Amino acid sequence: MTTQKKLFIKTYGCQMNVYDSERMAEALGGQGYVETQTPDDADMILLNTCHIREKAAEKVYSELGRFKGLKAEKPDLKIGVAGCVAQAEGQEIMRRQPLVDLVVGPQSYHRLPEMEAKTQAGEKALDTDFPKEDKFEKLKSRPRAQRGPTAFLTVQEGCDKFCAFCVVPYTRGAEVSRPVDRILTEARNLVERGVREITLLGQNVNAYHGVGPDGSDYTLAKLIWDLDRVDGLERIRFTTSHPNDMTDDLIEAHGTCAKLMPYLHLPVQSGSDRILKRMNRSHTADSYLRLIERIRAARPDILMSGDFIVGFPEETEADFQATLDLVEAVNYGYAYSFKYSTRPGTPAAERSQVEPAEADDRLQRLQALITRQQRSIQEGMVGQTVNVLFEKPGRLPGQMGGKSDYLHAVHVANANVKAGDIAPVRIVEAGVNSLAGVID
Ligand code: SAH
Ligand code: SF4
Ligand code: F3S
Predict the structure, then answer these.
(1) Any idea what the CATH number is for the domain that residue 425 is in?
(2) What percent of the chain has pLDDT over 90?
(3) CA of residue 204 relative to chain centroid, distance
(4) Which of 30, 101, 393, 440 is least enclosed by beta carbons within 10 angstroms?
(5) C-alpha distances in Å from residue 431, one per residue of 332, 409, 414
(6) Does residue 437 sit in helix, strand or coil?
(7) How many CB atoms lie within 10 A of CB 77?
(8) Domain interval for residue 146
(9) pLDDT(75) > 70
(10) Which of 10, 14, 167, 205 best tests ligand 3's pocket when mutated (most atoms within 8 Å of CB)?
(11) Overall domain count for the chain
(12) How large a percentage of the chain has pLDDT more than 70?
């Protein structure tokens, strides 16, 4: 029997990294590792990193520096870097921080067990290939441990869109969709383990075109309808979508599939057609607004969410105003806004940059508008009864918290419910970060 070793994984970045970290922990479980919540008693530390903005990438090096003391105390400690920084910087990471033993890119996780064995033999291990094999198939396991009520499931990975600011097509590679039968098997396994809500993940999840059990080409909507038939699965969500891949059948599913939740994250990035063109987004502000009209015609109460970049190279005040106008027109329930961050190797990095102070000012103005919309939508929930999937106890004794169909955090005092229950909750108060409700 192998001796039990401890693995500490720290995850940065998007939900796909969260999913990947779970799969890596499972894969290393086969090597005798169990997860620990602190780096202090770990035999292996794995940072699953994000390269999307400069700050995210730099964080990795400061974090690695902090492990120096631990490694000095425990020379057998192995330190690994996975994720998008690993893919983007490869060997450079080991050069900048020699205490790193292992660097593994997102498409090579199935090789982790061999790589770990190599580090045990005192060698460094590096793999940032884009192999042809399906890493998820190779990482296949039938874990039986009970899980919480919600789970992520990656169905598509990579991106062929090459927005001028974005590293994802370089760090995650070309678009690949997983076959339908594997996704269904994994979904059923999750449901057996207590999961009631699955969020399908992909960098461009609505560009999903996996092969069906009959060999036919599936759309995301078709996959959702297959998942709709999985008994015990109560809620389906997906993220992140690209406006150009919102197909008619997917829009229609929002109106007709009861398990598909009324929430859609649909990044637009800017409201200025000039900037959208410079971003290589291949949609306009108007085509985005018309698309949302069609989605709302199918599902009038859908809650819209989006992503924005301010201070993209050459963005003028007039361009920024167009973004504010678009936000006004949409009325977002949630939206994430970022100051443009120059990413080496992307086309926009070469262009003339907006003054940082100007970009900061725009970010503040945009965030103020988004916060106003978010709050007013949350306040509009007061008096409504919404279904909540309860996930865990809240901060106060007797309190239970979960998410509404619209993904609002909701907590209920003295609720006679347990994690995994779905119950109608009457919203009585809108706080800053969550809604308070009662079960009548
Ligand atoms: N695939 C998704 C999201 C990709 S990354 C999509 O197409 O929308 C998540 C978000 O990070 C993006 O939507 C964008 O708003 C932001 N982002 C990406 N690159 C960035 C950069 N260089 N600077 C600032 N924000 C960026
Ligand atoms: Fe990045 Fe654009 Fe691809 Fe989204 S669609 S991952 S923003 S290149
Ligand atoms: Fe970051 Fe990679 Fe996700 S760059 S946002 S972890 S795809």
Answers:
(1) 2.40.50.140
(2) 90
(3) 11
(4) 440
(5) 17, 10, 18
(6) strand
(7) 18
(8) 135-380
(9) yes
(10) 14
(11) 3
(12) 97
